[in-house]
Amino acid sequence: GGNASNQGGAGSVYVRRNADSFGTLVFDGNGSGNGWAVLGLPGTNYFAVADAVVVRGSRALVQTEHAGLTLDLQQSLTVQQSGYLVINGVLSMQGSGVLTVASGGRLDVNGSVVLGVPLALTNGGLWQVNGSVTSTVPVTVDGSTLAADYLGAPAVSVVSTGLVTCLASSASQMHKLELNVAGAVTVDGSSRIDVSGLGYLAGYTRSNVTGGASSRLNGGSYGGLGGIYGSSGSVNAVYGDYRDAAEWGSGGGIDTYNNYAAGPGGGRIQLVAGSLQLDGQVLANGNNASGGAG
């Protein structure tokens, strides 16, 4: 419910045949309304759903009832047709079914994910995890994007313009991409693992501080010295260890006098795998802007 200025969330319907052991809870946002629907109940930190859940349609905006909720989905979860589901807590899927994020669907998890069912991340789906993903089954990113701080799985395949990355860093929180794969990581020729521009912001350097950062359009340093733009300003000092590349790249120097922007530094990747078949790209470049590069 609602009015023209404060519309309600997408409606839901529960469907179950008499002969079936479980049904399907559908949030359908193909009609009107632009408010948020909720999944879960107040007053509890754990909510189990014994039925399949579908979030579909561009006006299907669904979020967990409150932050810190553990959502235990025991059948399939499907987010598709530009539907959007936000889970502000732990997502556990260790029963039956499939996790599907497809056709422009978006799934955000602000917490950890424990995955024991197949993943169908395909056709422009977006899955973002502000935390870790631990999967007991192989993970395939097919023409879609997976962003997470940590991905642990028996095998990972990135195919058909797929992208594996992490969330963007900020002045208060840094994000990295850590892959821990027991078997093979496969990246086809059209796909990439890419954290370019996800390092320290422009004007920031090691330890995420502004002190000692590059200035006046000079490039940001990490393992090598940043590019020098001119005689004014400074370039931040080189840092890091090539044997243990456990840092982020520094951002380029901001020119506040002329109001020129600069680019953020390259992000941080740690990749441990049984084997790597790389026909695509693994990237951690700094970004260019109207001024200095990261």
Task: Describe it.
The protein has 294 residues and is mainly beta. The mean pLDDT is 92. It is built from no helices and 23 strands. Helices cover 0% and strands 39% of the residues. The protein is elongated. It has a 23-stranded mixed sheet that branches.
From N to C, what is the helix and strand string? EEEEEEEEEEEEEEEEEEEEEEE
The main β sheet shows up as:
23 strands, mixed
**SS-based structural class?**
mainly beta
N-end to C-end Cα span: 48 Å
| Residue share in β-strands | 35-45%
Précis, in short:
This protein is mainly beta and 294 residues long. Helix content is 0%, strand content 39%.
Question: Main attributes?
Answer:
23 strands; 294 residues; elongated; mainly beta
Blueprint of the fold:
Layout lengths: L10 E5 L8 E5 L7 E4 L6 E4 L2 E5 L4 E4 L5 E4 L3 E4 L3 E4 L3 E3 L5 E4 L3 E4 L3 E3 L3 E4 L3 E10 L3 E4 L2 E9 L2 E4 L3 E3 L11 E11 L4 E3 L74 E10 L2 E3 L11
Parallel strand pairs: 2-5, 3-6, 4-7, 5-8, 6-9, 7-10, 8-11, 9-12, 10-13, 11-14, 12-15, 13-15, 14-16, 15-17, 16-18, 17-19, 17-20, 18-20, 19-21, 20-22, 21-23
Antiparallel strand pairs: 1-2
